[in-house]
Amino acid sequence: MMNDEQRRQELADFLRTRRMRLTPEQVGLMGGGRRRTPGLRREEVAQLANVGVSWYTLLEQGRDIHPSREVLQSIADALQLTPAEQQHLFLLADQQHVINTHTAHEQVTPALRRVLDALNPLPAYIIGRRWNYLAWNTAAEQVLLLAKVIPPHEDNAVWRIFADPTVHRAYNPLWEQVAQKVLAEFRADSVHFAHEEWFQHLIADLQRVSPEFRAWWPRHDVRGRADARKDIEHPVVGRLLFEHTTLQMAMMPELKLMIYTPIPETDTLEKLHQLLGQEVVMNAV
Predict the structure, then answer these.
(1) Is the backbone of residue 32 left (phi > 0), alpha (psi -120 to 50) or beta?
(2) Judging by beta carbons within 10 Å of its beta carbon (0-12, 13-18, 19+), is residue 264 exposed, middle or buried?
(3) How many CA atoms lie less than 13 Å away from 114 in the CB half-sphere?
(4) Cis peptide before 218, with omega less than 30 degrees from 0?
(5) What is the pLDDT of residue 285?
(6) For 128-146, how does the pLDDT look when each residue is reduced to its tens digit (9 = 90+)?
């Protein structure tokens, strides 16, 4: 697991970034004139959470102190954290059992592969706890170009978002919005595996290849997964409009099934049939 020093530093950074995004007006305080740095002051957070300023300062400095669940909830309320951010806060403060990351080998069963195939022409794929693509159907391969290899983390969904120019073009002009959402969801999951070597290598490589990742990762933004619209600019058939849904496997919670459903009253379904028809012809040649 993440050692105590790493966990306390993550907690300190998270609290600081949450504090800096708020203004006094947002939390019902007087602005107090011009400020040298953005956001609330530590004493203002302490006041809102009804805790001592010195104590809160030590917490934000990563010192070895152990806040109770009640105090953490007060801080979460003071910082106006979302449910996903509150969960992240409690995990960083070691107030919940961290999901065991030493799970058995992730395996996509033949039954799940048949489900993927049956979903054609709807693009669908399965990712594991490391956010690696484990299996996908023909529609997903054609729409998301999943067969393309982008080393050294070719199977990782976060890596492809930031390191693959094809993905960047596919989500334009909304790439930044999509990438920030994916990164915040990945950050929320990272509490469970931040100590693992593969994660450290992935983060280092992302910081090396992507200026956006270097700028956004220190923000500590987190969010839970939610259904969303996905607009994709395909190089062959043009604009595709989807509703994106995430389903978690009850018997294998480390696996998630992602499904892209064409938005009604658009020509997306027709274009999907066109893409799959071309695939069939190509395979027959």
Answers:
(1) left
(2) exposed
(3) 3
(4) no
(5) 34
(6) 999 999 999 999 999 998 8
